[in-house]
Amino acid sequence: MRPINELPLDYTRDRAGIIRVLPPEMSALSSPSPQTLRNRLVPPLLKMMLWCSYRLPITWARAAGRGLGRLLYWVDGRSRRVTERNIALAYPNLTLQAQTQLVRGSLEETGALAAEMGHVWHAPWQHTAALIETIEGADLVHSALGEGRGVIILAPHLGNWEVLGLHLATLGNTVALFEPPKITGLGPIIQRARERSGGQLVPTDARGLAALVRCVKQGGISGILPDQVPDDASGGRNVPFMGVTCGTASLACNLIRRSKARAFMGVAFRTERGFNVRYVPAPDSVYDEDEEAALSAMNEAVAELVGGHDTQYQWSYKRFRCRPDMGRDHYRDLKVPRSRFEVNPE
After folding, report:
1. DSSP 3-state assignment of 272?
2. Which residues on neighbouring strands pair with residue 277, listed in sequence order?
3. DSSP readout, 113-127?
4. What is the pLDDT of residues 160-182, one digit of tens each?
5. pLDDT tens digits, one per residue of 200-253
6. 25, 246, 247, 301: which has the fewest C-beta neighbours closer than 10 Å?
7. Distance separating alpha carbons of residues 17 and 330, to the nearest angstrom
């Protein structure tokens, strides 16, 4: 007879040491892991937050979000410190008072971005489209498509890039890359939201990349985030952005060269009651065969878009990270006590 611990059954022992066999559908009680708790709790919480955001007028939702942004400043956590460090690096000529004002404004806009997402991800596309007050440069995109050329939109973390992605899909056949988040259950929510206006998301693997290139070569559209720092050292180069050398992904410029597509900068700026969508031809240098020159030109174009809308850039993102082991770590001291934290340690 086989020992009980080799049988295909779950079992446990009570306090008296008596072995009790559990039915197959049950298992011994154990505390769920933190990841399991996140997988269970975060998706329904996100759905609830999106529903609540959508039920509020967008101006009210943004006001609540900006209140959350002010709270983020006073909490003095990661978001505030990354924002402080980034703004000190990007705007070294500003006074400390001006930098602090920009930090506060940036965190408030980050809160507004989060709070308005019910009107972007939960609402019907017709509702979101009605919030777009002006559209600039769409005729240039249509003109490029009319010539039979594909189009690649370089859309940085500025304004509300989710609104831009939804509008982009209304201009033509659109394919974009999508990497599901680590929290199980969030992927389907985000994918449904981003495909509501007709776009298609493909995975960030070889097959997905091939589908994206094929779409653009056939005269379609793709949107790419040009300011997302690559995790892999082979994914880009360290080139200047806002005067600071930092990691810049080479995917966008490589695709532009491979597909012979027309490149545009794209952004959906936040206005008082909605959004202003803008498409601007990318500078000629992004087509350069020299990768470093192309990436530098792309970063300059992003910086030009940021100018005048500085608080709407996502300064809470570690944009000035460098390729692994190939540059200075500007964020190594974020967890030190406030008394020892230097906004600009240089």
Report:
1. coil
2. 135, 268
3. HHHTTIIIIIS-HHH
4. 999 999 999 999 999 999 998 88
5. 999 989 999 999 999 999 999 999 999 999 888 788 999 999 999 999 999 999
6. 25
7. 56
